[in-house]
């Protein structure tokens, strides 16, 4: 395993609560929490609202903890990228030790609370998600291979499985398909972004696909992953796991996703500022998951 990158000099100022909040990557967390909540609400049976709330809180805290540990480890890399240089550690607003203690404390608290107040299965899955993001993705794969997000991205696919396991104590076919869906969604989501922020990753020495394989190969990969993504998104409908509300929404959204991915694949623009299809696909990828998971919950409530 690689040693932690060099530590930026801190100004020694006391960190504010806002800096601790920034460590948790709150904007990314909104979609993590939403997909977890949808997994919980789509599960069969009735969930005690107090247990449901505790489960979602633990997932949010666990995801926040892994974001903090990611930033603790990557302080040196974040300092080299425009997009991340303003984060609390590279900007010198927080000591690295504080981020480590905050991340470890929050991770332990979230897993223990999940085990005590929800169930052991969801506590085990939460532990795997945190370790996957921090150790497998951040420490192991990200600095080594351009396939980092394909395997490492599985960390972000656990939330619906977590929500379902919290509600039922079981893992079944539908949440496994939802896991696969986010797993296949992550490469187009991230590679679209990495195309228009490529110089940042090159500067930080991270082997992201556009840096290693070039724009053309990355654009092709975006389209390649979008095809099984679309199939996986629609699959719950013909399998009889959802009704037409979800099925038709998934088909329409996925068709639009494929169209945007095809525009990315055929784009020849090399200037990052002018990469419109890539920006469109990245923005749409986020809307796609929000609407798809929203439709799933409505569908399961209507057809329950
Ligand atoms: C390894 C997998 C992933 C990578 C490498 C990745 C990377 C990124 C990056 C670099 C950004 C740019 C914004 C920022 O600096 O925070 C971003 C934005 C975002 N990501 Fe991902 N992402 C991944 C997986 C996910 C997953 C699984 C989710 C949720 C289910 C997600 C949700 C979001 C959201 C909501 C934003 C927009 C945040 C904003 O408004 O700035 N991402 N992602
Ligand atoms: C416990 C649990 C449910 C965990 C979920 C983990 C999670 C939030 C996964 C999403 C993956 C993510 C934000 C990657 C960011 O990539 P990066 O870290 O390479 O981005 P950066 O360059 O912005 O640091």
Rounded mean pLDDT score: 93
Helix content: over 70%
Please state the overall shape, judged from the principal axes of the Cα atoms.
Answer: flat
* Low-pLDDT residue spans: 1-11
Return the domain count. Answer: 2
CATH class of the largest domain: Mainly Alpha
Membrane topology: Multi-pass membrane protein
Keywords: Cell membrane, Heme biosynthesis, Membrane, Transferase, Transmembrane, Transmembrane helix
Catalytic activity: heme b + (2E,6E)-farnesyl diphosphate + H2O = Fe(II)-heme o + diphosphate
Pfam family, one: UbiA
Describe, in plain words, how this protein is organized in 3D:
The chain is mostly helical. The chain folds into two domains: 19-170, Orthogonal Bundle (Tetracycline Repressor, domain 2), CATH 1.10.357; 172-304. Helices cover 72% and strands 0% of the residues. The longest helix has 28 residues, at 276-303. The model is unreliable at 1-11 (pLDDT under 50). It binds protoporphyrin IX containing FE and farnesyl diphosphate (FPP). Farnesyl diphosphate binds next to helix 2, helix 3 and helix 6.
Topology, element by element:
Blueprint: H1 17-23, H2 26-42, H3 49-73, H4 75-79, H5 96-117, H6 120-141, H7 148-152, H8 159-168, H9 173-196, H10 198-204, H11 209-213, H12 215-234, H13 244-266, H14 276-303
The structure holds protoporphyrin IX containing FE and farnesyl diphosphate.
Protoporphyrin IX containing FE (HEM) binds near residues 32, 83 and 149.
